[in-house]
Design a protein that fits this description.
Elements (H helix, E strand, L loop, with lengths): L14 E4 L9 H13 L7 H7 L4 H11 L8 H15 L9 H10 L4 E5 L3 H7 L4 H4 L4 E4 L13 H8 L11 E5 L2 H9 L4 E3 L15 E2 L21
Parallel strand pairs: 1-2, 1-4, 2-3, 4-5, 5-6
Helix pairs in contact: 1-4, 3-4
Bound molecules: SN-glycerol-1-phosphate and magnesium ion.
């Protein structure tokens, strides 16, 4: 009896980079609620087409998009937007919960000695707040790169943050083609590809499918990740 053919390994992934907001942590909903509140003050409504443009971006860039897209130029500056958002987000962030499958994936990859890091557009101070409940889990990361890092000159969709994060593994044998990125946002998927890295996208169900076409793989949740497809040790493997 022939053994069932294993799915062809398309990549030999050696390192993993995780986006954070919307991918590891269920935090995009906080940004949505807060942005809806800010727009309501001007009698305007927030929708997913605007959300899709803002998610994954550095704060100031997201603010500029928010103001331009909603016609608030002259009524609200990006700095004022961030300041008003900050007050409400500050209370929400420490309650951030993990996305489904995030803990199991991180613990498995760590147990199999696959180096991992987080590459988030969030500011370092927001990273600290959001990871309040997740210190032990996030300590399994080799390092964390945040959007305010001076080496991250251009935010997603530029490749900067993923190239900086790859560099900080300090592994001379690292090849970007073997660094797998996990993302939830179109800007993050574009940034990964700009960095020469394959990317698995786990989009919010509200995100238009037309914006999920570029990723190498699209999953409904991290629970659906197929280790063997990427040449990574699976849950059952002894590797
Ligand atoms: O890069 P991430 O962690 O998704 O940061 C997103 C944040 O800027 C809010 O959209
Ligand atoms: Mg994200």
């Amino acid at each position: 009896m022939m053994a069932a053919l294993k799915p062809a390994v398309t990549r030999q992934i050696t390192h993993v980079l995780f986006d954070m907001d919307g991918l590891l942590l269920d935090t995009e909903k906080f940004y949505t609620v807060v942005q809806e509140k800010i727009l309501a003050d001007y009698g305007k409504t927030f929708d997913w087409s605007l959300k899709a443009k803002m998610m994954g971006k550095k704060a100031l860039e997201a603010g500029q998009i928010f103001i331009q897209d909603t016609g608030l130029t002259g009524l609200l500056t990006p700095e004022e937007f961030i300041q008003r958002r900050e007050v409400m987000l500050h209370a929400m962030f420490p309650e951030s919960d993990l996305m489904p499958g995030a803990e199991r994936l991180i613990r498995h990859l760590h147990a199999k000695n696959i180096p991992m890091a987080i590459a988030t557009s969030s500011h370092r101070r927001h990273f600290e707040l959001k990871s309040t409940k997740h210190g032990p889990l996030f300590s399994l990361m080799h390092h964390v790169v945040t959007g305010d890092d001076p080496s991250v000159v251009h935010g997603k969709p530029a490749p900067d943050i993923f190239l900086v994060a790859a560099d900080r593994f300090e592994d001379p044998d690292l090849k970007v083609a073997n660094v797998l990125v996990f993302e939830d946002a179109p800007s993050g998927v574009a940034a990964a590809h700009a960095a020469g890295m394959p990317v698995v996208m786990v989009p919010d169900p509200n995100l238009a499918t037309s914006l999920c076409q570029e990723a190498d793989q699209v999953l409904a949740s991290l629970n659906d990740f197929d280790y063997a497809h990427w040449g990574l040790p699976s849950m059952s493997s002894e590797q």
